[in-house]
Design goal:
With about 130 residues, the protein is of the alpha+beta class. It has two helices and eight strands, in the order E-E-E-E-E-H-E-E-H-E. Strands 1, 2, 3, 4, 5, 6, 7 and 8 form an eight-stranded mixed beta sheet that branches. Pfam families: A9CJY8-like_N (PF21631), ACT_7 (PF13840). InterPro entries: A9CJY8-like_N, ACT-like_dom_sf, CASTOR_ACT_dom, CASTOR_mTORC1, UCP008459.
Length: about 130
């Protein structure tokens, strides 16, 4: 089992958008202090600050991000497990993003307080 982790709540609300796989990466997706862009054969997925996305794009809004304090070695196993287990037990849906140094757990803004409580109950520190 991994020791307790420290998570920081990012201040901005985020939106998760889906575009067709072949579409170019739009300029609006690369604005703001936080964005993540993933292209697969099936889709172009964009996470960015809420309000930067134009109307008419398929999006899920009102997400908040919890950033794990990293960096973590790639050899470490199960970094997210105890956090995701606690959130699943509390019946909180997540959207995860991993970067080279750390991981982000996105939860719906309406579930943020409940998520923080569940994570603290599991022994994690949320700031």
């Amino acid at each position: 089992m991994n020791p307790s982790q420290v998570l920081n709540i990012l201040p901005q609300r985020l939106v998760v958008c889906r575009l067709e796989a072949g579409e170019p990466i739009p300029d609006w997706a690369q604005n703001g202090s936080f964005f993540s862009i993933t292209r697969t054969a099936e889709e172009l997925s964009i996470v960015c600050e809420e309000g930067l996305n134009p109307p008419g794009i398929l999006c899920e809004s009102s997400w908040r991000a919890l950033m794990l304090e990293g960096p973590f070695d790639f050899d470490q196993i199960g970094i997210l497990k105890s956090m995701l287990d606690a959130l699943a037990e509390a019946r909180i849906s997540i959207f995860a993003i991993s970067t080279f140094d750390t991981d982000y757990i996105l939860v719906r803004a309406a579930d943020l307080e409940k998520a923080v409580s569940a994570l603290r109950l599991a022994g994690h520190r949320v700031c």
